[in-house]
Amino acid sequence: MSRPIDPPAPRSPAALPLDGRDDPFFPFDLEAVEPADRHRSMGPTGHSIVLVGLMGAGKTTIGRRVASRLGLPFVDADVEIERAAGCSIADLFANYGEAEFRKGERRVIRRILDGRPLVLATGGGAFMDPATRAVIREHATSVWLRCPLPVLVRRVQGRTHRPLLNQGDPREILAGLMEIRHPVYAEADLIVDCGDENVDQSAGNVISALTLAQQPRIVPVRLERWQYDVTIGADLIRHAGVLLTPVLRQKRVVIVTDDTVAKLHLPRLLEGLAEAGIRADTIIVPPGEGSKTIAEYERVTNTLLELAVERGTTVIALGGGVVGDLAGFAAATTLRGLPFVQIPTTLLSQVDSSVGGKTGINTPFGKNLLGAFHQPVAVLADTSALATLPLREVRAGYAEIVKAGLIGDAALFEWCEANGQTVLDGEPDAQAEAVSLACAFKAQVVGDDEREEKKSDGRALLNLGHTFGHALEAELGYDGRLLHGEAVSIGLRLAFLTSVRMGFCAQTDLDRVTSHLDRLGMPARISDLGHVFSAETLIGHMQRDKKMRDGRLSFVLARGIGQAFTCRDVPDDLVREVLITESCVS
After folding, report:
1. Residues annotated catalytic, as ranges
2. Would you say 206 is a known binding-site residue?
3. Is 22 annotated among the ligand-binding residues?
4. What is the SS3 string spanning 123-192?
5. Domain 30-212 in CATH: superfamily?
6. pTM more than 0.85
7. What CATH number does the domain located at 217-389 have?
8. Which pLDDT tens digit goes with each residue over 302-320?
9. Could you report the per-residue pLDDT of 187-232, keeping only the tens digit for each?
C-alpha cells in the first residue's frame, strides 16, 4: 500500500514557500502516500469508507476489522501523515500549529482517497475542517463511530502521544470536544453507535449500516431564479439535520406539523436536527383540510412572530399537503418571506404538492384562493414514512403519479400499468422509483412555467382532473369523506370522458385509463362516492374555481395518453351531460 522511503528533512515554518494553492508547502513527501491499489475489491458501497469520531472511538481497530472482512485495504491517516512528514503529529502541532497541520492533513487524505476504495481511519479533528469534509464527501462514504464519554475516557487513559489530551483532565477535554464536534460529526453519511461491544460486533454493525444504506435519489428542480433538490430515500427524517445543514441560513428552524404526524415522525426529526446542532421550535395544528383556514394561518404566523423568528430562520413543513400548503404560505408572508423546507410524509404530498412552490389556504369561496408562489430550499421525501399510511392514503397519492403519465409521459403511464400494484403494496424500491419519476416530470413542467403564466398548456396541465375533482371536494365541504387524490382519480377519468365526447380522444384511451383505475381499486366514478350530486351545483363550484379566465371554464383535456392540453371551449351543456351520465341529478 505504501512504499518505504527516506523521510524528508524537516524545515522551519519560515522556510515554507507556497505552492500556488491554498495549502502551504508542508515538509511532506506525498509520494510516500500511495493511493490504494487500483485492482482491489470495490466494497459494498463502491466508495472508500472513512471512519470519523473522537479519539478512543476505535477507528483504527474497528477499521482494520471492517477492511479485512470486506477485502479492502486499510489506511490510518495519522500513520500516513507521520510517514510523509518524517516526524510525529505532536511535533507537527508544535512546529506549525493546528491550522497549518489541518491543511497538510487534507492534502494527505485527498491523496489517499485518490484511488480505488479502501477503509480510512482519520484523526479526531480531520472531519472538523470544512474543506476536508468536502473531499471526503466527494470520494467516500463517511461513518461516525459514536461512543459514550465513559468508554472514551477509559480507552484514552495513559495515552501521551495525543497533543490535545496533554492539556488537562482527559474527561473534561473529551466532554468539551463532544460538545463542539458531535454536531459536525453528525454530517457523516452514517452513524454507528459503538460502546462496549467487542471489535467483531462493532465491525459487523458498521458493515450492516453500509449494506443497508442506499444513496438517496436526487431530483433537481431548476428554475429561472431558484434551484433546489428533491431528495428521495429511506430514513431521511432521522438524518434531516445532516441533509439540511448545507442549505440553512442559520441553525434555527420552526417545524409546522399536525397532531397525527407529530406522534409518528416528530421525535425522529427533532433528534436528527439536535445532532446537527440545529435549534428547533414546533407549531402543531389540527390534522385535515380544516387547518387550511384564515384563522389557523393567523395562529401560525402569530406564533412565528412570538418566537422572534429572523429572516434566516427556516420554516419546516412536516406532514402532508395541508401542512405543506399552510406552512408554506405562512413562510411566504412572514417577514416578507422566510426560507422554507418541505418534508412531505404522504405519497400525495411527496409526488405533488411539495414540489413547485404553490402554497395557500382555502376560503368559503373555494380551495387555495389565498396563496403565494414560494419555492422551498429543499424537499426531503422520506419513503420510510409511507409505511405508516393506510392503503386509502397511498391510493390517493398514486392518483397523482398516474396523472403525470397521462399529462405528458406515456412511458410513465406504462410504468404505472406494470408496477402500480407493487407501489400500492408498499414495496420500497417501487415507491421510491414512483416518487422519483413523478417529481422529475413535475420539475420539468414547473421549470418551464414556474408561475403558471403561459396562456395555454405549461404548468396549467398539472390541473388534469382538477376542475372536476375540486368541484366534488367543495361540495363535500373538505370534511374527509373525499381525499384530494381520490377526487383527482375520479377527475382523470371524467377528463378523458369529456375528451372522448368532444372528439379529441379515442374511446380506447378512456377504456385504458378506466381499466387501470378499476384494477387497482381506485375511485373512478362519481357513483363510487355513495353521494347524490347536483350537476348544476358542481358546475357552480367550477365557475368559482381560480382557473376561470374571462368568465369561462378552463379544463385540461387529452388527445391521448400523455397528450394533455388546456381547453376553454368546453360548453356548459356538455359538462352537464357528462355529469348526468355519471349519476348526477340535473
Report:
1. 336, 358, 400, 442, 452, 459, 463, 466, 470, 484
2. no
3. no
4. CCCHHHCHHHHHHHHHHEEEEEEECCHHHHHHHHCCCCCCHHHHHCCHHHHHHHHHHHHHHHHCCCCEEE
5. P-loop containing nucleotide triphosphate hydrolases (3.40.50.300)
6. no
7. 3.40.50.1970
8. 999 999 999 999 999 999 9
9. 998 999 988 888 988 998 888 788 666 678 999 999 999 999 999 9
